[in-house]
Amino acid sequence: MNARMSSHSVFVSAALLSSAIYLAPAALAASAQVPVAADGIGGVVNSAKGTPEAGVWVIAETEDTPTRLIKIVVTDDQGRFMLPQLPKGNYKIWVRGYGLVDSQPTEGTPGKNITLKSVTAPDAKSAAEYYPANYWFSMIKPPGINEFPGTGPKGNGIAPVMQTQQDWLTHMREGCQLCHQLGDKTTRTLTDNNEEGWAARIGKAREDGDAAVGNLGRSYSHDMQNNMTRFGRTRGLAMYADWTQRIEKGELPTETPPRPQGIERNAVLTIWDWANGRQIHDEISADRRNPTIGGNGRVYGASSATGTVQWLDPVKNEAGEIQLPGKDGKWDINAYPHNPMMDQKGRVWLTDSTRGRQMTSRAEIGKPIGNPLGQRAQYCYDGSSKYSKLLPMTGENSSAMFLVDPNNPKVEHLPICFSSHHLAFGYDKDNTLYLSGNAQVVGWINTRIFDETKDMAKAQGWCPNVLDTNGDGKITQDAAQWNQQGIGTFDPKKDTQLRGFDYGVDTAPKDTSVWFTNIGPNVPSAIVRFDPGSNPPETCKTESYEPPVKADGKNYVAYDARGIGIDSNGIAHATFGSGQIATFDRAKCKVMNGPKATGQHCPEGWTFYEVPGPKISNTDNVSADWFYLSWVDTYDTLGLGANVPLTTGSNSDSLIAMLPDKKVVHFRVPYPLGSFYSRGMDGRIDDPKVGWKGKGVWASQGKFPAWHQEGGEEGRGPMLIKFQVRPDGLAF
Questions:
Q1: What is the pLDDT of residues 672-704, one digit of tens each?
Q2: In a 3-state reduction of DSSP, which class is residue 162?
Q3: What are the extents of the domains in the chain?
Q4: How far apart are CA 671 and CA 71, in angstroms?
Q5: What's 18's DSSP letter?
Q6: Is the dihedral of CA 618, 621, 623, 627 positive or negative?
Q7: Residue of higher predicted confidence among 202 and 263
Q8: How far is 579 from 572, CA to CA, in rounded Å?
């Protein structure tokens, strides 16, 4: 199958096509003579009736660069388009849009004008084949709100752990959507759509040595089995079977996606193949605190399952990889890079989050896993530092750091005392690198001390995540005197140590605070503010803020927080799997410590904004999309202004932005379908003197099964995407 969807592969309905969002302007066909630069292709798209086709994508693809390159723009009200900044080469150019099927490709070269003709979809089914996954996923029918709590296999079939529908919906994201979209072509179609067929599907596993998932295929299959059981296996399988059976019988999404409007039409997408089929968890292109650092250089991606760092040179359009320590020439799980971050020197730091996670047979899955590094270093627990004296870090070492220096071919592997997951640099003189990975401890590396001494014992520190619930303004320096959140009787005369898992992380530009999302549990989840103070660990303080509870006392206004970003004014921006972008202004809080400061004490700090898009059926207006990591574009690298919060629509092929007027917009990646399941993103300024052309926001496909994207097994994902927003849709 060709990676581009065939225009002959689907059917479609005239009723749907009468929708206003598909009507072309009632005007004469526009001229193709759009001004172009030597590195651009301009022109016009006309409909089958000869009128301008507005709000559709023009896609140009070439194989004449070292790695395949794709450029995508949107037509304006007059059907005009401008494909800018094209390397020399021959391009196949075609039209894709809602209400259409793909046009036949036209050959084009930079410096030319062309005229394209759109092809109206013959019926609704054909049109719907181009919808983002969330439109199809919205058709699924979870158990109703009134069916909870679960009463087990002898009752309603829902597992007792599912106390509310919010628990069930969150598990649909965290358990089944964590690694890929739901609703894309692969997941919504199945040869055998009954419960047995679904049971067989989740039991399949990729062979060891797979390009994308390495030797973890059996582990992922095992996870899927466990996740289905967590629903209540029979009810979970029945839900998915009902969904795909209805689709097989011809049921279509009830909503149709709108074509790009307004500023969405000013977007320019540049897409490269990279990573040679290996899954990419996250990428980094610049120092987030100064996005000119890294300009015009390589973009780096962490390939977790294959123990490599992938890179792309967007100037030369070349891609390659860096082997990490522990590689044996084939594949070695001992290297597990998770999340990269660039420092002020252009070096890339990566968490090595699960070192030693070796599994060679199904029988070993779930058993305790040994670690080649053995026990943690003695300084982690022997009391020789003030950190290990307050809270010794004992047990097997399961975390480390990789340091990749573009000027040094040797990758450094650095042991750390605490767990790690994501990371963010502080704005302090020490260029402190903070790591998420646990709610009980916040760990960091003082990179100034590391550079001066190369001594990790001196460079790292950690603090317990403890709330000042006794209200005395400080944290008791005796761990035996802390309450444990959710365990035992709460004593208001004691401070309280948080539990759970710190996931997303960002640092505040205005002060020394570090913010996390706490996803243990995911309902309700929380955002956590940590301040090390002037003399940690004595001066460390933590605050935790949960989304407000609803009037029924058991459900929450929002839940399942993953991403967080802090703008230059100190406002926190968080994204929730329940479908909201939220802002949290701590300055509005009336209570920050004391016995009530355990999560539900500052509802006045929250403001929630619903993200447009289809909702899951049989729910209380819950989004069919899922928002993963978020980031605040402090330095206007995208072109929408400073301090714009961004997140990724994991199920909608879109980069989502909340504009200064609080309007939420989608910048979709329409080709290949399913290629933009992204974790995080960052922005870079290559040349501040040339306006929009010298900057952009970068993100990579992050799904584990890269073969789920359009083109299937023959697709060459993953892909790296650069988003730019022009002042108008014809700028070049």
A1: 998 899 989 999 999 999 999 999 999 998 888
A2: coil
A3: 14-128, 133-248, 262-360+367-390+419-725
A4: 10
A5: T
A6: negative
A7: 263
A8: 17
Tokens encoding 17: 């096509």
Beta partners for 108? 91
> How far from 305 is each of 278, 332, 398, 628, CA to CA, in Å?
8, 9, 16, 19
Rounded distance, CA 714 to CA 702, Å?
18
Q: Three-state SS for 362?
A: helix
Q: How confident is the model at residue 398 (pLDDT cuts 50, 70, 90)?
A: low
H or E element that contains 631: strand 627-633
pLDDT in tens, 234-254: 999 999 999 999 999 999 999
Q: Tens digits of per-residue pLDDT, 50-108? A: 999 999 999 999 999 999 999 999 999 999 999 999 999 999 999 999 999 999 999 99
Q: Is the peptide bond before 149 cis (omega within 30 degrees of 0)?
A: yes
In the numeric block, the tokens 């997951």 are attached to 421
* Helix (H) or strand (E) run with residue 221 in it: helix 217-231
Can you name the residues that pair with 401 across neighbouring β-strands?
Answer: 351, 414
Question: Which residue has tokens 């208001």?
Answer: 492
179-198 residue pLDDT tens: 899 999 999 998 889 999 99
Cis peptide leading into 35, omega within 30 of 0?
no
Angstrom CA distances, 649 to 123, 342, 481, 512, 654, stand at: 27, 24, 43, 30, 5
- Cβ neighbors of 7 (< 8 A, separation 6 or more) are 101, 102, 103, 104, 119
Nearest to 705 by CA among 718, 687, 723: 718
Closest CA to 583 of 635, 655, 660, 652: 660
How far, in Å, CA of 121 to CA of 136, rounded? Answer: 18
Quick check: 304 and 298 in contact, CB under 8 A?
Answer: no
Only one residue has tokens 């998420």, namely 436
Q: What is the pLDDT of residue 31?
A: 57
So what's the architecture of 262-360+367-390+419-725 in CATH? 7 Propeller (2.130)
Whole-angstrom distance, CA of residue 48 vs CA of residue 40: 25
- Lowest mean pLDDT, pick from 29-43, 295-309, 564-578: 29-43
pTM for the model stands at: 0.91
Residue 517 per-residue DSSP state: E
Separation of alpha carbons 448 and 459, rounded Å = 8
Matching fold, domains 14-128 and 262-360+367-390+419-725: no
Q: How many CA atoms lie within 13 A of 684 on its CB side?
A: 24
Q: How confident is the model at residue 362 (pLDDT cuts 50, 70, 90)?
A: very low
* DSSP line for 51-99: SB--S-EEEEEESSSSS-EEEEEE--TTSEEEE-SPPSS-EEEEEE-TT
The partner residues of 506 in beta bridges, in order of sequence, read: 515
Query: Is residue 400 within 8 Å of 416, Cβ to Cβ?
Result: yes
**Identity of the residue numbered 276:** N
Instruction: Please tell me which residue, 34 or 409, carries the higher pLDDT value.
Output: 34
Distance of CA 424 to the CA centre of its chain: 16
Q: What is the pLDDT of residue 683?
A: 97
What are the structure tokens assigned to 117, written together? Answer: 């003709």
* Residue 328: per-residue pLDDT: 40
CATH superfamily of 14-128: Carboxypeptidase-like, regulatory domain (2.60.40.1120)
